[in-house]
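Morning F.,

Quick status update on the modeling queue. The single chain you submitted on Monday has been processed. Sequence for confirmation:
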Amino acid sequence: MNDFADRALLPAGLRDVLPPAAAHEADVVGRLLSAFAAHGYQQVKPPLIEFEESLLAGGGAVTGAYSFRVMDPVSQKMMAVRADITPQVARIATTRLAKAPRPLRLSYAGQVLRVKGSQLRPERQFAQAGVELIGPAAAAADAEVITLAAQALINLGMREVSVDLSLPTLGGLIVGADFPDGLRDALDRKDAAAVAALGGAAAPLLGSLVNAVGPVDSALARLSALALPPAADLLVRQLAEVVGLVRAAAPDLILTIDPVENRGFEYHTGIAFAIFARHWSGELGRGGRYLANGEQATGATLFMDAVLEALPGPTAPRRLFLPAGTPGPTAARLRAEGWVTVAGFAAMADAAAEARRLGCGHVLKDNQVVPA
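Structure tokens below.
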């Protein structure tokens, strides 16, 4: 490997996206944004980097450990590169669009950068696409976002999409403010012994939550039978209402419940969810209810690296080699017919061989399209 190739090596977790994958990603993101727009979600485009004091305020504070920082040479203030786009959309909704009518439906797509990856997602830079619904606290809002995100993936060709619903604040509502260190991790791991040791007087009830995992009907039945504190019981009844609305809108969508699961950046305040597909092991996206600088909101974020890997690969475009001197109107007509045209710059003795060298399956010969 030469010196330039050595210098061109990328840091861990970063990669170049090459043809045809880059075009495939752009196409899939565009189709998702079109699906969101069809449901009234208007696109916003926040910057990649912001002042630290705004990007990492409010709900964005939980992304601080994942965010790169840099000094702004103009203002001499610290800036941070976004690790998640949701806090930025919340800022836009509650500042620049504070006077816009509610419910406010916003969509977005863009790159995020994180200080480190995880064992399940080693990538440090990847694309996100998603929606945020600002204003309403109704169960119908949660159901709309869940259904829209799942249906958008189904429309892309994803098979057997499932949504795993969770209540990340449920344990805190049962235990109270003095949530013991390690109990959250024990609940996430479904470690019954650790929950029993750390849960105190609430341990039996928390143990029942750990067991209330599975298909939506059986899990809801187990949750509804528990003697929960009023606030926790209200949250479970809200979950049941959301489940009913999602089923009415998307009867074929697979629903499961894991009441104590706590995913992501831990800023969710109500019903949360993760999206999976039967043939793919990792999360395709996640979302849930949160506070957008004090205002009720719910949203969903799709992880484009996972989505693209779970989808069938891009189909090869119909590439057509045009020998040098092909008239412009002829080339335009062929592109209008759906061909991707690749123009030659010099006369070739064997135009078909040149077409094959450039990855074209067809060549224009005597004003006719023929296989190369």
